[in-house]
């Protein structure tokens, strides 16, 4: 089976920003592969979007698993033969659950677990899916980062999350540089403080507002920016 629609993968799509990004991309005519580690929650999310008449399906993905990432690539190749968009949204924030939220007493284990999802997860999924983009000389990769990873305004607290997002920004720059000339654009985005499970109920932004720049970057025309960091569709400092 193949589809004439452009195909988008969203990681961590069962809730929050990933769910809303899946919805908005589908509304723009993409066939969205919504992925999550939790199959029950992922399928429930897809059913909700399908009830809105949107072209969305569920694929299981554990971003911490090489085998799971490779299998996703194989399934997409077999069914669609191409991939146009990858939104690396899956992320965790373990510092708030840790016994200490300070770098001077942070547990290495907390940082390692955070990196496994927020950095290595993005790396392995992107590595697995880039060949599908290269074959058609087209791709848009959006890495969901955070201003907490900005070196220019770096502060204390939440060391695991902060350092992982800084490393994610470095990944973004490296991928963008190595993919120059392939028409695969790679950018990072700070969605702002959004009312999600991670952001909490006090956050000022709705999920719709949070994903606006994500979807904008995912649908950039040829020749647009690559290797950038954006918030509210404007470049921001690293």
CATH topology: Rossmann fold
Q: Label the CATH architecture.
A: 3-Layer(aba) Sandwich
Number of strands: 8
Radius of gyration: 17 Å
| First-residue to last-residue Cα separation | 42 Å
Q: What would you call the structural class?
A: alpha/beta
**CATH class wording:** Alpha Beta
Whole-number tally of structural domains: 1
Strand order of the largest sheet: 3-2-1-4-5-6-7-8
Low-confidence stretches: none
Indicate the percent of residues in helices. Answer: 40-55%
Oligomer: single chain
Describe this structure in words.
By secondary structure, the protein is of the alpha/beta class. It is built from seven helices and eight strands; from the N terminus they run βαβαβαβααβαβαββ. It has helices spanning 16-27, 39-50, 66-79, 108-118, 120-136, 159-178, 207-218, and strands spanning 7-10, 31-36, 56-60, 85-88, 139-144, 184-189, 229-231, 234-235.
């Amino acid at each position: 089976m193949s589809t004439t629609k452009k195909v988008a993968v969203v990681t961590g799509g069962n809730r929050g920003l990933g769910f809303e990004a899946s919805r908005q991309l589908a509304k723009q005519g993409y066939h969205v592969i919504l992925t999550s580690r939790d199959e029950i929650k992922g399928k429930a999310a897809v059913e909700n979007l399908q009830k809105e008449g949107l072209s969305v399906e569920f694929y299981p993905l554990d971003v911490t698993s090489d085998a799971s990432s490779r299998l996703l690539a194989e399934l997409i190749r077999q069914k669609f033969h191409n991939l146009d968009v990858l939104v690396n949204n899956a992320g965790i924030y373990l510092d708030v659950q840790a016994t200490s939220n300070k770098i001077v007493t942070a547990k290495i284990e907390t940082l390692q677990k955070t990196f496994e999802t927020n950095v290595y997860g993005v790396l392995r999924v992107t590595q697995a899916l880039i060949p599908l983009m290269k074959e058609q000389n087209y791709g848009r990769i959006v890495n969901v980062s955070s201003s907490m990873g900005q070196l220019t305004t770096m502060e204390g607290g939440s060391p695991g999350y902060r350092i992982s997002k800084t490393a994610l920004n470095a990944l973004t720059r490296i991928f963008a540089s190595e993919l120059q000339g392939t028409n695969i654009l790679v950018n990072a985005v700070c969605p702002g403080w959004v009312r999600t499970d991670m952001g909490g109920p006090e956050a000022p932004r709705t999920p719709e507002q949070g994903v606006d720049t994500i979807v904008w970057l995912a649908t950039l025309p040829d020749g647009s920016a690559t290797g950038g960091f954006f918030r509210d569709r404007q470049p921001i400092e690293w």
